[in-house]
Automatic annotation (TrEMBL):
Modified residues (4-aspartylphosphate): 52
Protein name: Response regulator transcription factor
Any Pfam family the entry gives: Response_reg
Superkingdom of this protein's organism: Bacteria
InterPro entries xrefs: CheY-like_superfamily, NreC/VraR/RcsB-like_REC, Sig_transdc_resp-reg_C-effctor, Sig_transdc_resp-reg_receiver, Tscrpt_reg_LuxR_C, WalR-like
Keywords: DNA-binding, Phosphoprotein, Transcription, Transcription regulation
Domain HTH luxR-type: 143-214
Entry keyword Transcription regulation: yes
PANTHER family on file: TRANSCRIPTIONAL REGULATORY PROTEIN NARL-RELATED, TWO-COMPONENT RESPONSE REGULATOR
All copies of domain Response regulatory, residue ranges: 2-121
Amino acid sequence: MRVVIAEDSVLLREGLGQILARFDHRVVAAVADAPALAAAVAEHEPDIVVTDVRMPPGFRDEGLRAALALRADRPGLPILVLSQYVEQSYAADLLQTGDGVGYLLKDRVGEVTEFVEALDRVAAGGTVIDPDVVRGLLSRRTGGTPLERLSGREREVLTLMAEGRSNGAIARALVVSEAAVIKHVGSIFTKLDLHQTPDDHRRVLAVLTLLRDASR
């Protein structure tokens, strides 16, 4: 898999490159700012982009805005965004662009296998939100929002859905049957009023409901 990395920290940028090389992925460009990221993607047409949220010159959300612009120009380009801090609004903005996006905390990079698995899920068109972000959001008070309708088990299933897990993977994690997971997922969609349409991906919409609830 061909990867473009955008990260202003030299150490992290080099570290990401070494990790990806260990798993037979090829870094075709490693840059330090948003304009260079746009140029690298135009030149190399990568299979996935990994970018920091905050980059020069302002160190605010330049990387995120670059990611959103890339998705607008190249719908479906897989992008994995790394952040030092939990910003649920950033994750929500990414999810609004469709499948094939991820939002991970930088600490996750140290858990090499989990990080690469998340990268692969995003590259394959999946959606991944950092598990620590999801658990933190679900632990908050949700009175008066659709999330309060969910049972404890349904919240566990939603957490794993947000991590990009398939029904089979959720079943293995919770030590239940896949049929039970399918039933829980259906119940989540019903309780969150997510009716099936030809254009909507309800798993993504369910996670968006979580992120929007936390930003209220």
